Amino acid sequence: MGRRNILSALPGGAAGIGLMPISAASAQELPEIRWRLVSNFPKSLDTIFGTAVEFARAVGELTEGRYRIDVFAAGEIVPGLQVLDAVQNGTVEMGHGPTYFYSGKDPTFTLFTGLPFGLNTRMQNAWFYQGGGEALLNDFLAKYQVCALPAGNSGCQMGGWFRKEIKSLADLKGLKFRIPGMAGQIWQRLGAVPQQISPGDIYPALERGTIDAAEFVGPYDDEKLSLYKVAKYYYYPGWWEGGAAAFTLVNLEMWQDLPEHYRSVLTYASAYANGWMTAKYDAANPKALQRLVAAGAVLRPFPAEVMEASWKAANELYAELSAGNADFKRVYEHLIAFRDDQYLWWQVAESGFDAFMIRHRRG
Amino acid sequence: MGRRNILSALPGGAAGIGLMPISAASAQELPEIRWRLVSNFPKSLDTIFGTAVEFARAVGELTEGRYRIDVFAAGEIVPGLQVLDAVQNGTVEMGHGPTYFYSGKDPTFTLFTGLPFGLNTRMQNAWFYQGGGEALLNDFLAKYQVCALPAGNSGCQMGGWFRKEIKSLADLKGLKFRIPGMAGQIWQRLGAVPQQISPGDIYPALERGTIDAAEFVGPYDDEKLSLYKVAKYYYYPGWWEGGAAAFTLVNLEMWQDLPEHYRSVLTYASAYANGWMTAKYDAANPKALQRLVAAGAVLRPFPAEVMEASWKAANELYAELSAGNADFKRVYEHLIAFRDDQYLWWQVAESGFDAFMIRHRRG
C-alpha cells in the first residue's frame, strides 16, 4: 500500500489537463509506478491474454516506461476465476477479462460482457462508449470497490463441440454440456445438464464421454484444444455470446489515487486494447475455421427449434431475474432498449451488405 | 519549419522505450509542439469532423498539453478536397479524413477507405491492424510524402436519396446521381450520370430537379441535409461503402522527425479515434433512421437486378484498373483475398446471430 500513499500525497498538479499547455515541471512530478495485472486466462491464449499484454505495452509506451504494468496469467498469483476478488481486496491493482465469470455473485455481471441474445460486438462498443453502458457498468462495480474500462471483444463466438448431432429439442434431454454461467442456466431449461469444467479438462472429458459437448470460444482459440478429434460437430451461432466484452478492472481506491494523467493513459490504452482484441480474433478466425474443417470438424447450425426454445427460455429467465434483482432489471432494460434500436438499423444497411457479400464470395 | 528543425536536432533519447523504465530526464526533453490538422469535413458533422477533435483531445491529454493539435474544418485553411496536398507540401502537419477523395490521382486511394463491395467495418480494422493493410497503405502513401493511421470508420452507409423509385436497371438510364469517385464510375457503367456536388448544394439541386438522386453518408449525417423533403426514397445498402475508413494523415518528414514518444501518442490516439467514430455513428444512426421514416422517408432496398449488375460492373472495372496500375493490382488482390476469407467466417457465427436477432427484435 506504500505506493498508493505516495500517490495520494502528491500535489494535485495532475488535474485539469485537457489541451491547456502546462509547465514542464509536472512531467517530472509523475511518479514511477509498477502495478500487477492478473488475467482470467492462460498465456496460451494469445488473443485474450495477449490483449492484456498489449494494454500493458501501451501504458508503458505512453508513459515512457514510468508506469509499468506486469501481466500475470491465471494461476500465477490467483486462480483465473478470482480476478475480481483479487482486485477488490487489493491483492493486485488490476485485472483483465470478462465480467460474466462473476454471475454467481450477481447475474448483473453477465449483462456487461454479453447477455445471451444481447448485443453484437459493435453494438456493445456503441452502448459502452456512446449509449450509457459504461456509466451503468461503473455504477454497479462500485459495490465491489472496482472500476472498469472496455478492453477487448471476441466477436460472436461459436456454439461449441458436440459428440452427436443435435437434430431436435429432444436431443438436448440430459445432454451433459460444458457451458458456464447464465447460458448454462438457459440450457438447463432446455433439458441439458450444464457442466463447469476448466479448459484443460475439456478434451479428456469429451474423449471419455464424461460430457457430451463443450463450448469454448471460436475457431482460433478452439483449435488449440483440438476438440474436433473427440466431438466433431461444431455448432453455431454461439447465441449466448453475440459479442463478449473484456475489461480492465482497477481497484477503485487505487484508481482514485492515480494522477489524472495516468488515468487518461489507462483510458486510452484500454480503448486501444479494445480494438486490438477484436481485430486479432477477426483476422485469425477465418483461417482457423478452414483448418478445423479440413481436419474433420463438421459445421452445423443449431436447429431452428433449438434457437426458438432458447430465445423463449432466455426471456423467461430474464423476467424472473428482473423481478428479484433491481440492478439486473435496470441494466437489462437499458440494454434491451438499446439492442432493439440497434437491430432496427442493422437490418437495413449492415446486414443487407453482409448478406449480399456472403452470397457472392469467391471460391 | 523551425519547429521541425528543433525536433530533428534532439538527441536520440526518445528511441527504444517499450517497457524499460528510463530516466526522468527524458520527459523534460519532450518539446512543446503545436500542430495544425485539417479535416475534409465541416464542423456541422459532429461524427467525422468530431473524430478529429476527439483525436486531438486525446493527444493533448496524453502529453499533458505539451503536444497540441488545432483542428480546422474544410475551407478554413484549405478546401476539403485538398487535405492530402496540404499535408504533402507541408502547409499543415496533419489531415483527417478518408483517402478515396484522391482517387482522381490514383484509384489505389479508394482501396484503403473502402472499395465498393469490399470489406465491412470490422473486416477493415482486422485488415489494417492484423492483416497487413496498414503496411500496404503506408508503402503506397510514401509516394506522396505522407503516412497514415486508421482513425475512424462510418460503418456501412446508405445508398442515398432518390426522387423516383428504382424498380429496374432501366430506371438508371440517364439518372443524374450525385455520387463521387469509383462508385460513380460503376454507376456510369449502369447507365447513370454521376454528378460531383458539394454537400451544401445537394438540397437545391434535388429540389430543382437538376439531379435525380444523391448519396451522402447514413441516417445521422443525412438527416442534417433534410433530403427526405425533396427525394423521399431512401435506398440501401450503400454497397460502395460497406465500411468507410478515415485516417490521420501526417507529413512523412514531420512524422520521422517527431520524438518516438510522440509517434506512440499519435498511434494510440488514432486507435482511440478509430473506435470512437464507429461507436458514435452506431449509437446515433438508429434514432435518426426512425426520425427520418417518421418524417416521410421511404426505405427501399436496391432491386436484386441493380445489385447484380453493380457487382458485375465493379468487378469489370477492377480488372481493367488492375491491368493498368500495379499498385492497384497489388493492394486489390490482397484485400480481396482477405475479404473472401472473412466472409467465409462471417457467414457462420456473426451473420447467423444477427439474422436471428433481426427476426426477433421487439416492437
Please characterize this protein's 3D structure:
- 2 copies of one chain form a homodimer.
- Chain A has helices spanning 2-9, 25-29, 48-62, 83-88, 108-113, 121-130, 133-141, 181-189, 199-208, 219-225, 252-257, 260-294, 304-324, 326-346, 349-360, and strands at 33-39, 67-72, 94-97, 146-153, 160-162, 176-178, 193-195, 213-214, 233-236, 245-251, 298-301.
- The first copy, chain A, has 363 residues and is of the alpha/beta class.
- Chain A folds into 2 domains: 3-156 and 242-283, Bacterial extracellular solute-binding protein, family 7 (D-Maltodextrin-Binding Protein, domain 2, 3-Layer(aba) Sandwich); 160-241 and 296-359, D-Maltodextrin-Binding Protein, domain 2 (3-Layer(aba) Sandwich).
- In chain A, the strands form 2 sheets. A 6-stranded mixed β-sheet of chain A has the order 7-6-8-5-9-11.
- In chain A, α8 links the parallel β6 (176-178) and β7 (193-195).
- The interface between A and B is large, with 96 and 95 residues.
Assess the beta-strand content of chain A as a share of residues.
5-15%
**Low-confidence regions of chain A:** 1-25
Order of helices and strands of chain A: HHEHEHEHHHEEEHEHEHEEHHEHHH
**Pair of chains with the largest interface and how many residues each contributes:** A-B, 96 and 95 residues
Number of domains of chain A: 2
Note the total helix count of chain A: 15
Describe the sheet with the most strands of chain A: 6 strands, mixed
> What's the arrangement of strands in the largest beta sheet of chain A?
7-6-8-5-9-11
CATH top level label of the largest domain in chain A: Alpha Beta
